[in-house]
From TrEMBL:
<keyword id="KW-0472">Membrane</keyword>
<feature type="transmembrane region" description="Helical">
    <location>
        <begin position="336"/>
        <end position="353"/>
    </location>
</feature>
<dbReference type="Pfam" id="PF00916">
    <property type="entry name" value="Sulfate_transp"/>
</dbReference>
<feature type="transmembrane region" description="Helical">
    <location>
        <begin position="166"/>
        <end position="184"/>
    </location>
</feature>
<feature type="transmembrane region" description="Helical">
    <location>
        <begin position="191"/>
        <end position="211"/>
    </location>
</feature>
<feature type="transmembrane region" description="Helical">
    <location>
        <begin position="64"/>
        <end position="80"/>
    </location>
</feature>
<feature type="transmembrane region" description="Helical">
    <location>
        <begin position="231"/>
        <end position="251"/>
    </location>
</feature>
<dbReference type="Pfam" id="PF01740">
    <property type="entry name" value="STAS"/>
</dbReference>
<keyword id="KW-1133">Transmembrane helix</keyword>
<dbReference type="InterPro" id="IPR052706">
    <property type="entry name" value="Membrane-Transporter-like"/>
</dbReference>
<feature type="transmembrane region" description="Helical">
    <location>
        <begin position="313"/>
        <end position="330"/>
    </location>
</feature>
<feature type="transmembrane region" description="Helical">
    <location>
        <begin position="37"/>
        <end position="58"/>
    </location>
</feature>
<feature type="transmembrane region" description="Helical">
    <location>
        <begin position="141"/>
        <end position="160"/>
    </location>
</feature>
<feature type="transmembrane region" description="Helical">
    <location>
        <begin position="373"/>
        <end position="402"/>
    </location>
</feature>
<protein>
    <submittedName>
        <fullName>SulP family inorganic anion transporter</fullName>
    </submittedName>
</protein>
<dbReference type="InterPro" id="IPR036513">
    <property type="entry name" value="STAS_dom_sf"/>
</dbReference>
<keyword id="KW-0812">Transmembrane</keyword>
Amino acid sequence: MSAPPAPTAAPAARTAVEDVTSVRAALRSPKRLRTEVLAGLVVALALIPEAISFSIIAGVDPRVGLFASFTMAVSIAFLGGRPAMISAATGAVALVIAPVMRDHGIDHLIATVILGGLIQVALGALGVAKLMRFIPRSVMIGFVNALAILIFLAQVPHLVGVPWAVYPLVAVGLLVIVLLPRLTTAVPAPLVAIVALTVFTLATALAVPTVGDEGTLPDSLPTLGLPNVPLTLETLSIIGPYALALALVGLMESLMTAKLVDDVTDTRSDKTREAWGQGGANIITGFFGGMGGCAMIGQTMINVKASGARTRISTFLAGVFLLVLVVGLGDIVGRIPMAALVAVMVMVSVGTMDWHSLRPATLRRMPRSETLVMVTTVAVVVATHNLAIGVIVGVVVAMVLFARRVAHVVEVIDVGHPDEHTRVYAVVGELFFASSNDLVDQFDYVGDPANVVIDLSRSHIWDASTVATLDAITTRYAAKGTSVTIRGLDEASQERHARLAGHLGAGH
């Protein structure tokens, strides 16, 4: 009789997942190693204009953003919990630290980045990554769709007020990225598009905007140093709020991106390690004079979805290639037409969008509350250009709608009169602050007999508000000379009721 296959299925599945993200396995496979190397090169090319743009937002020299992207990518390749995810200087972090740079200068900005990294390490150690379980699917879909819109909108400035030749170049780039994978996947289509358009513009001396037009590329390596700020409470009061904001925004974007990559690659990652890994990367970045950062969703999608990378090799090489390109090959990189990178990012935005969620058939089946949460998340993110704020608002809206929905499923049922002096009520449903507020008005205080029994065997007490409501019901009956007995409590509800009943104060 053959043994059932079930006991070996789970380990086999784990081994397959581990092999997909294993650096050792990739190094043993020339095909996979080539994919990782070329993916890192494509990402590095795409990082350059983004890092320069975010440096401008933060009000710092382009070298600060480029060095931050290098140190973040290399550091997170070793420290992070999500293989193949790209971390670098980002717009969200740039927006947070811009006021520090404007009002206090570069040294305070660097100190803010280091403190923000320390806070992220602490939050990671405290298990903040576990909060990801409270982000609903509708918020996640809104986050992804908003990201796709932001990536596309970020390309619009490169398509407005430019020479006419930019438009056919972008069109050709899009065609290469769409059609080449149908012929071969040996080389990433985005890389082919970038190289082909660069060669064409150089050969024809076509005057179009280039990477070099975005800002000056560095010609030296980053150096290790400490920020020149006094170690006082005054300094802490200046940088503390911004460091906390940087830590929270960076962690939220990074953990959301990690979850998205998990879904795209059908693998799992260590979110707790990713949390403290992001902190460690920011600390290192600060000591090297970088502006800090977090996971970059657009570049991560280029790496994972467009290029097929799955391991830390691509992340590490993205940082290494970035430094080599901007320091050693700056003259060549500066001549890459922005049209090529725009084409790559437009296809990233198209691939990132969850088109299934926008189909009329899907919207008809989806509960209106779920659609409202998704739309709210998208609207807030697009309006603020801040993914973290949009996610927070989306989660709050989802919680409010959930509480509102659950609050209306509590019933008070008259289940019988054992004798002429007793009436029994059964409360059915989950009791918490939203559902228990109306509970006090569902009893007949005037018409009930001398003894009232409230059966809670089909409900559960979740909070102090419910205990306070039960106290209020008991008090109102007592004023009429009626005795109240509460029965049927499960163990957790009994413990909570026994601990709080009679100790919450009138009206509370």
